[in-house]
Write a structure and sequence with these properties.
This protein is of the alpha/beta class. It is built from twelve helices and eight strands. An eight-stranded parallel beta barrel has the order 1-2-3-4-5-6-7-8, surrounded by four helices. β6, α7 and β7 form a beta-alpha-beta unit. α2 runs parallel beside α11, α5 packs parallel to α6 and α10 crosses α11.
Length: 313
């Protein structure tokens, strides 16, 4: 939908007043983690989960490596979050290098572990830069995967959306058609790939609405902790890093604390502008680092819910 008069008034207030003064905190957030590779990374992950749990996220999701390379670790992490915390855990599941029977079996294991929410993705090939090829006995794409999961159980399903067009899509219209197929197959909502300007999301939101899609579209937010890593991610998913953002990180390679401050400032301003445009749900790609996401949520008025700090400890 287009920005309304009330949203324009809110946008003006965001410019006239201190940017984060008295933001209502009426946001719903979710957080994404990746499965740890070793004991040290596992400790970092669980510190992050415990830090963010008091913000009472709608759900937390755990990623699934290219070619299913983290299948066991993803399952173990999701199951532990579901078992040991008050959080609702969602598991990523992809189509890559697996038969339908193998994917269905993983989904059945999630259901048996109490997982009711799947983030269903086509997935990336295990070889960086390779072209995706569906397994001959597998699901051909995310829309087929969503339909297959819905036949197994009444999962809640989130899918991906691409404000700057997926690199494999012919054009924006084709990309939005693909999104519509995934939602029509039974997905509940779409979570966008990260982006760095509010206009990027607002244009996409308007285009999606014009295509007759009424499902919830949740902006995906990536607080940048490593510019080099972000540039790599952006190249894979078609996201653009604005030149002004590149310039803000110049000279900070050896200043991690300053880099964190700049990162939080950029991401928080983006979130504030999205809020001014009527956005009330955000999904944070945490990279298993809680501090940046927690700080941004705090600026936006989110505070720990009573009783959740003890429950998450």
């Amino acid at each position: 939908m287009s920005i309304t008069v009330n949203q324009l008034e809110e946008a003006r207030r965001a410019l006239d007043a201190p940017l984060f003064a008295d933001v209502a905190g009426d946001l719903e957030v979710s957080f994404e983690f990746f499965p740890p590779k070793n004991e040290k990374m596992e400790a970092t992950l669980w510190e992050s989960v415990q830090t963010l749990a008091p913000l009472d996220p709608r759900f937390v999701s755990v990623t699934y490596g290219a070619g299913g390379s983290t299948r066991e670790r993803t399952h173990a992490t999701v199951a532990r979050i579901q078992r040991e915390t008050p959080l609702s855990a969602a598991a990523h599941l992809t189509c890559v290098e697996a038969t339908r029977d193998e994917i269905d079996q993983v989904a059945e294991e999630y259901w048996a572990a109490g997982i009711r929410h799947i983030v269903a993705l086509r997935g990336d090939p295990p070889v960086l830069g390779a072209k995706f090829e569906a397994h001959p006995q597998g699901y051909a794409n995310a829309a087929e995967l969503v339909a297959g999961l819905k036949k197994l159980h009444p999962f809640e399903i989130s899918v991906a959306a691409y404000p700057e067009v997926h690199p494999d899509s012919a054009n924006r219209a084709a990309d939005i058609d693909n999104l519509k197929r995934k939602l029509d197959a039974g997905a509940t909502r779409a979570i966008t790939q990260f982006f760095f300007t509010p206009e990027c999301f607002f244009r996409f939101r308007d285009d999606v609405a014009a295509a007759g899609i009424g499902a919830e579209i949740v902006p995906g937010i990536l607080p940048v902790s490593s510019v080099a890593q972000t540039r790599k991610f952006a190249g894979l998913c078609g996201a653009q890093i604005p030149p002004w953002m590149d310039r803000l990180f110049e000279g900070l390679d050896d200043h991690p604390a300053a880099r964190q401050l700049v990162s939080a400032t950029i991401a928080a301003e983006l979130c504030r502008k999205l809020y001014a445009g009527g956005v009330r749900t955000l999904h944070f790609y945490t990279l298993n680092r809680a501090e940046l996401s927690y700080a941004i949520c705090h600026l936006l008025g989110l505070r720990p819910k009573a009783g959740t700090e003890a429950a998450a400890a």
